[in-house]
Amino acid sequence: MKKFTIAILVNNQFGVLNRVTSMFRRRQFNITSLTVSETESEEFSRITVQSEGDEIKKEQLINQLYKLPDVVSIAELDNLDTVNRELLLIKVKNDPNVRGEVSAASDAYEGKIVDYTKDSIIIQMIGDSRKIDNFVTLMKDFGILEICRTGVVSLQRGATTIRRVTNL
Amino acid sequence: MLLSGSDILVRTLIEQGVDVVFGYPGGQVINIYDSLYKFQDELKHVLTAHEQGAAHAADGYARATGKVGVVIATSGPGATNLVTGIATAYLDSVPLVAITGNVPNSTIGTDGFQEIDITGVTLPITKHNYFVGSVEELADTIREAFRLAKSGRPGPVLIDIPKDVQVAKFDYEPAEPVAADESFPAKDIRIQQAADTINAAKKPFLYFGGGLITSEAQDELLQMAELIDAPIGCSLMGISGVPTDYPRFLGMQGMHGHYACSTAMHHADCIIALGCRFNDRVTGNRAKFAVGAKIVHIDIDGAELGKTVVPEQGLRGDVKKTLQKLIPLLQKTEHPEWQAEIDQLIVEEQAGLDSREGMTPRNVICALNRYLSENTPVATDVGQHQMWAAQYLNLKNSRRFLSSGGLGTMGFGMGAAIGAAMGTGERTVLVTGDGSFGMNLNELATAVANHVPMVILLLNNSVLGMVRQWQTLFFDKHYSNTTLDSRQTDFVKLAEAFGAQASRALTLGELETALTAAFACDGPYLIDCAIDKDEFVLPMLPPGGSMDDIITRIGD
Fold first, then answer.
1. Can you tell me the ipTM of this complex?
2. Contact B430, B457 (CB under 8 A)
3. Known catalytic residue: B208?
4. N or C: which end of chain B has fewer CB within 10 A?
5. Which of A63, A65, A168 to mutate to test the interface with B (most CBs of B within 10 A)?
6. Which residues contact B489 (CB under 8 A, 6 or more apart)?
């Protein structure tokens, strides 16, 4: 199914994330990635959510979101026009036979070793979801102990901001 | 003016034009009830028998008047008892403000006595809800709740007020009643595209739901119907939007809709859908719904456009304002062939009408029709009687058919009828069944206490008729838990025990006598009207079926 990413600017109040995700649950929109953070203004939080479905489903999702009074603005984030990043922390076994390969792979992907013990290595990596996916696949051969990903954060390229998106 | 939170609440309700609230006192709203006592000359409170009845009463008040209905309940069980009433209002887009008390802020989150997270519980069944953490925000929150409840597509809003906020004092400054947000017509380009589609139609069909009534667009609808020579049909929620006897009006479409209406909509090449949402009781099997028709869908809620049925043109905007811009773009046309087809369908429908004598559902509702004034609100419960009422009632004015369409809430009618009577000052009718009536008959106490002039027409077949009908048709007559014979309830004695008047009608003659007495009575009057347990609601589109599967008669 086709994935899409949208950013939702919401009032920065307790319970707002619950209202948004409750709507996703109730109408059975799947969330494949979700991040929430503060913004340039104390008034608002920004939710970046990745979901899947066709154009009709996406439009329905956006229309339903606009019905929530706490939703201020929504931006559809097209891959071509946006900068998408995710942060990965991955812990793999520190096996003397492969640690050289792990290190080389990390270098090739511009990762950074941020923790090193005799039993384990933690690598930090920033990139788009595809790059992270590829790196995780690569690491499977070396014995992954644990993974943590932040989910996608996105900004539109150029001077366009989420506040200057017209309603559908 | 320094006032307590509970005083601020009541003063703000009065300021917002509220004249009656429905509710039930309890530990965490006792301060609010003290303020209601203080301001009782300015704001009437109607005590119901159960919070659910209060919620339905506020809903019935809102449906019949177009104003925002208000209901008050205490925390915990009081609040959860509102849930069915709030959900009923949500699914039928009824403006409602529900006010609940809660335990003090210091106790919130500790599972205190009668503490429940009612804002969490009602999240998916309200337009929005508020937990008022401090008295400073109370008055403005109430105003905001009224604005939201009546703006755009109306709906219920809940305000949860902890006890300490009711007690705390704050400066109250009166304000003007808040207005609903201004609504807009659809975009010009969309209206032009819609006009092109409609102008090209050979078999146009005008179809409306409850949104037409909310938008008060009846005049525009009829003007358009005359202009483009189109028949008119409606959903259950649209009933009373157009006078039943209006010549172009074919009645209700859908699972139990009128034959001519459902068939005409199925054969149309263009459906102009106004303020409606194409739910499954309307479409049946979506893949087979109106396959030959281009749909022009106008609704104020953009999320309804394409939600279930993908329209040729979806226009987000106020129905009335959009029609006012659309009509000048339409060509005056005539469709004699289409009208001939409609006429033929009406002939077929008339031929198929139930013409039996005696206490048939049709004869009972037709007898009732003779007693209705053009302003009589008629509430229903849910089940077979509801569909018979929808099919046979003869209504003149809008907001005079009050029925739980979306949620299908059995037990809706008692409260709704009381609320409608309070709101309109009119004698109100409740058409109910023995199953539905059993759910909230405790509200007879409310009707008696408030001398509510109300006629309860109880179609008593000693079965849960709608489920029984499905069991007959689709479950080999396995009448699992739908036979109420063993209940032995004497509804006449029951009504009398509550202090209401009542009589039993076993024949049409007795029904006339009873109706005459009932419509002359000052307070509630129940007519226990015996009908056969094997009456069917017809026609019927089986669930998930299409017009090809329509059942118009039951074979032996």
1. 0.88
2. yes
3. no
4. C
5. A63
6. B434, B438
